[in-house]
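ok so I'm stuck.
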Amino acid sequence: MKPARTAKTVAMSSGKPSKKNPYIRLSDATAPSFAIGAALADRLLGAAIDAADAYFRQYVAATGSVTDEYRAAIAKTLAFNRETAASPTFREDEFVATAVLVALLEPELVVLAGAKADAVAAAYATSKARVLAVAKDADTFARAIARDTFVEGDFGAHDFGTLPSGSLAHIADDKPTARRLLEAEAKGFDAAVVTNSPGITGIVRQGLSAVPTLPMIVHADRFVVGDTISWSNRRRRFDVTVTEAMLDEMQRARDVIDRVVPFPSLEDEIALPLEDKSPARPALVLFR
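replied:
not stuck anymore, here's the structure
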C-alpha cells in the first residue's frame, strides 16, 4: 500500500533560517514531501467548501445547501483517504467541488460512468440521491464505497429506465467524451459532470485519452477531416486522425450542450497532496 498522501502535524524543523526569506528554515531532505498542521487543514477545507459553494451558485439553480452534516462527511472522507492512501483515482479538489455541487443540485439520481473514487465518495458524502456506479474497470476503493450499487458494465449500454427530473451523470472513463455526452442526453440526464477530458495540452500529457474531449467538442469548428494529433509516453505512441464520423459526433455533442461550467480552482484554498494534479479541470455540462 502507498504511504499516506499527506503528512500529519509535524514539529518545526530545526534547520537553519534561509538567507533569502527569514520565515523559512532549511534542512536536508531526500524526497518531495508536504506537511500541514491539522487545525490549518480544517480551516482551509472550510474555505474550499465555501469557495465552491459561492462559485456554483452563480451558475446553477441551487435547491439544496452544504449543511454542517455534509461538511463533516466531506472532512471524514478526506481524512480516511489521506490516512489510508485508499485510491489512486481520488483527487481531493475534485472531490470537494463535486460534493458541494451534488449538495446544491440535490439530484434524485447520480450515475457514475467510470466510477472514479472521488466522484463515488462525493455522491455518497453529500447526497440522499440514489447512486449507481457503472464501470468495467474501477479501483477497490470505488467499489467498496458503491457497495451493492456498483454495476459491472458500460454506461452507454445500461438501461436506466425512466429517469427522475434533475438526474446527474458523472463521466470519467476513457470512452470518447462526445459519445458519452450524446448517450447521457439521449437517456434523459439533465446534466453531466465531465472529468478526464482535457484540451490539447492535457491530451498530449497523458496516455489514453477520451478523444474527442470536451474542449474539442466546444470548439468543433476548429477541426476538419484529416487533422492529426500524436503523442507518446514511455511505452506507447498514440495517433488520432479526425474522420468524418468523429467530426460529426463532435458537432452533434456540441448541439445538445446548453452551457459548460468549468469547476472552480480550489488550489488557493485547499492544501493538495503533491500528486493531486489533474490534466484538466472538470466541468458541469448542462443539456438543452
